[in-house]
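Same chain as my last thread, 185 residues:
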Amino acid sequence: MTQSGSERQRTIPGLDLDIDEVIDTPARVSDTALATVDDQVVAIIECTEALANYVEELHAPDGFDQFLTPAECAEIAAFVDALGNNPARVEEFFERRTGLILRQRNPDAGWTVETVREAVARANERRADPDLPPFAHECFALLDALVNYLDAFHGSNGFREVLTLAERQAVAQQINRLLDDSANS
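reply #2:
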């Protein structure tokens, strides 16, 4: 049984901001970051942007505007587990701005789970830096929240591999079914 949409969390843990207010922050500040912060922070922001796009893709077509409840995450985790092992995931990655039409996917510009975990570690090391602009701290908190969220519903082992495009589409259908079911109950 799912909870109603009004019971779903809409704020980013660690920030007093609604998802809608912060989900586009990495894309909005990308150019500013290049001019104002060091390369490590820029890489963390770019990783956050890519991961936000991945989460948006998993919530297509409506996009990511609320966290699933723990019960809903468990349902999606069971669905992901039922997909079984897929050797194609080894080569899978996600990118910044994945929605661009006719764009050639570039594995060298992509992000993997390992690079995301490294970005989280670097962000945690930099959190206490008082000289970083507020947008960097927002991106750090968003990155942490997205990884924790993916750990909750990306299967019983958490976020350990990037799902293939077909699997992402199947997960999006399941998430939409859950959201539609709870809206209609």
